[in-house]
Amino acid sequence: MTDAPIAKPVLDLIILDCPDALALGGFYSELLGWPMEPGADRDWVNLVPPGGGVSPERPDGRPTLAFQRIEDWVTPTWPGGAHPQQVHLDLTVVNIDASEPSVLALGARRHEHQPSKDGGFRVYLDPAGHPFCLIQ
User: What's this model's pTM, rounded to 2 decimal places?
Assistant: First the structure.
């Protein structure tokens, strides 16, 4: 038994399940301007955030997004429903109205349910159906 300090875990990947990792990874790569790591395929994609991501190859980097293909993928429902969302992303923009056209052009859809009372955020669905928000 040693008295060495216990290392804290480091957040490495935030992984979104989806029906096609390459397609959804491509959507978020374009949306965020983060390139895909080499070796991306339909089953698994890692994006590279500015400054790199955290992994054994990038120990001083930042957490990144990854996408994993699930054979029996079921689109999340929001709000509520039989398959409720488990996680969603909030993406900060300077102006939601100015940012929306490019988000929609990439394949996102504006969700019909918009709970923001003051317009400080807007809910969208990515091409696989995950809710995400643009916030200002």
Answer: 0.81
> For the segment 68-91, what is each residue's pLDDT rounded down to a tens digit?
999 999 988 888 888 877 788 999
CATH code of the domain made up of 13-69 = 3.30.720
Better-scored residue on pLDDT, 95 or 57: 95
Q: How far is CA 91 from the centre of its chain?
A: 9
In CATH, which superfamily holds the domain spanning 89-135? 2,3-Dihydroxybiphenyl 1,2-Dioxygenase, domain 1 (3.10.180.10)
Nearest to 124 by CA among 98, 82, 96: 96
User: Under a CB-based contact definition with an 8 Å cutoff, are residues 15 and 25 in contact?
Assistant: no
Rg (CA), the chain: 17
* Cross-strand bridge partners of residue 110: 124
